[in-house]
DNA sequence: TAGATTGTTAATCGATTAACAATC
DNA sequence: TAGATTGTTAATCGATTAACAATC
């Protein structure tokens, strides 16, 4: 059976729907129309309906969408109904920041280990999560399920470690190194967070804004 | 004179061009054609030429682009030719990670102060950058130029602090809180980094990949 | 039933790619 | 000059918005 490919533009919006629906649940809202949601989120109602209908008909004519049901369905679409174990390579500030971010666990993303090359860090724990030495990586991955590896080390080392992880059977990488990974196995899912790119985009928009306002 | 609006799709790609050109300079490459660059970056040569020509003709027929010149021009477009002072609100792991990220300074983004509400942090410095108490914010902004405020505190406090910053004359916010800011002044530039959104997108693509590979 | 609102098709808009004349 | 490659226009493709029949 042919699966229709859903564009990344749509996928990028799904977590945002999920977030707003979560807030609606907190506010005790039971149902919502695409039009009401549209007003809150600053997108067109048409886009909301189109986006959702990529995955199925979650609404009901004349009624709208049941908030809790839609929230759960989007959760399933995003794979949040199952636990993802994450290891973090690089136990510097950013790595530790990720380990401390409790919010991820509520979404099913559990950081199970940190790795670093600095011997001074051996055995230290962050929120109960142990920092391992990088040479224990093979051993660790042999004994524990790892779904995602987050890379927070300098870019010079990123390619080598990424490929090492891939050869250990890890097929998903959350990349914070400031480089586009060059992987031997093309069947690996990579999601990059390029902080300096984000900052440069902000900087461009600052300039643009200045010009606009004279 | 009418300025043509350049789409954010184009702007998002500019930092990536900048990054690749920087690498070419490091490798001692003097000139490059859109076609060669296209091969390295996995985009079409046509897109490269279109993107660049939004800002001006930086190339030369029969020759291509001078790497160093193009690098500098893109830097100017992105506003990297001037210093941006950043203050970070929230001196937790993420705030400190940003303060430690030396790379930003090379791009002209200088973190000048951190702010937190935790009295235990008063006076501590991170890489020489002082942690201030949040109630010193008004005083600090009165005495120092601040171009960008990075928000790394919990989402519950984000809106209030963002609006406080805006009323202090800060017109650019780099938002790490897991919320879409609701600002009183619409003339503020906001760039958000939603880490959990990024993780959810990764998770979706993991699922998709699993299905594809059986 | 009448009103509301979805699901879905059609129309529009914008972004990407292709093509090629201009020109170094 | 001949060859290469840009700048730019035209063609295509995809994503967004509008419209409305289906239906709760």
The succession of helices and strands of chain A, N to C, reads HEHHEEHEHHEEEHEHEEH
Q: Please give the most extensive interface between any two protein chains, plus how many residues each contributes.
A: A-B, 55 and 55 residues
User: What is the subunit organization of this protein?
Assistant: homodimer
Strand content of chain A: 15-25%
CATH architecture of the largest domain in chain A: 3-Layer(aba) Sandwich
- Beginning-to-end CA distance, first to last residue of chain A: 57 Å
CATH class of the largest domain in chain A: Alpha Beta
Mean pLDDT of chain A: 96
Helix fraction bin of chain A = 40-55%
Strand order of the largest sheet of chain A: 6-7-5-4-8-9-10
Number of strands of chain A: 10
Give unreliable regions of chain A as ranges.
none
Number of domains of chain A: 2
What can be said about the biggest beta sheet of chain A? Answer: 7 strands, mixed
| The CATH superfamily title of the largest domain in chain A | NAD(P)-binding Rossmann-like Domain
Radius of gyration of chain A: 21 Å
Count, helices of chain A = 9
Helix/strand-derived class of chain A? alpha/beta
- In CATH, the topology of the largest domain in chain A is named Rossmann fold
Helices and strands in order:
The structure is a homodimer.
Chain A: H1 8-26, E1 31-32, H2 34-41, H3 45-53, E2 59-60, E3 64-66, H4 67-77, E4 84-89, H5 93-100, H6 103-106, E5 109-116, E6 125-126, E7 129-133, H7 137-143, E8 148-151, H8 155-167, E9 172-175, E10 189-192, H9 195-212
The first copy, chain A, binds a DNA duplex (24 and 24 nucleotides) through α3 and β2.
């Amino acid at each position: 059976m042919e699966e229709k490919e859903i564009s990344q533009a749509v996928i990028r919006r799904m977590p945002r729907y999920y977030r707003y629906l979560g807030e609606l649940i907190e506010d005790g809202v039971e149902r919502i129309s695409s039009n009401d949601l549209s007003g809150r989120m600053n997108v067109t109602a048409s886009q909301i309906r189109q986006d959702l209908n990529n995955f199925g008909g979650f609404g009901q004519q004349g009624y709208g969408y049941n908030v809790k049901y839609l929230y759960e369905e989007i959760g399933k679409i995003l794979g949040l109904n199952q636990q993802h174990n994450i290891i973090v390579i690089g136990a510097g500030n950013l790595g530790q920041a990720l380990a401390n971010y409790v919010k991820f666990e509520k979404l099913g993303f559990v950081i199970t280990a940190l790795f670093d090359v600095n011997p001074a860090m051996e055995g230290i724990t962050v929120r109960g999560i142990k920092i391992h030495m990088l040479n224990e990586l093979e051993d660790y991955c042999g004994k524990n399920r790892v779904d995602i590896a987050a890379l927070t080390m300098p870019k010079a080392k990123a390619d080598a470690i990424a490929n090492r992880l891939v050869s250990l059977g890890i097929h998903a990488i959350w990349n914070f190194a400031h480089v586009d990974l060059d992987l031997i196995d093309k069947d690996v899912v990579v999601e990059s967070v390029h902080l300096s790119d984000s900052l440069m985009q902000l900087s461009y928009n600052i300039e643009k804004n200045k010009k606009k306002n004279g």
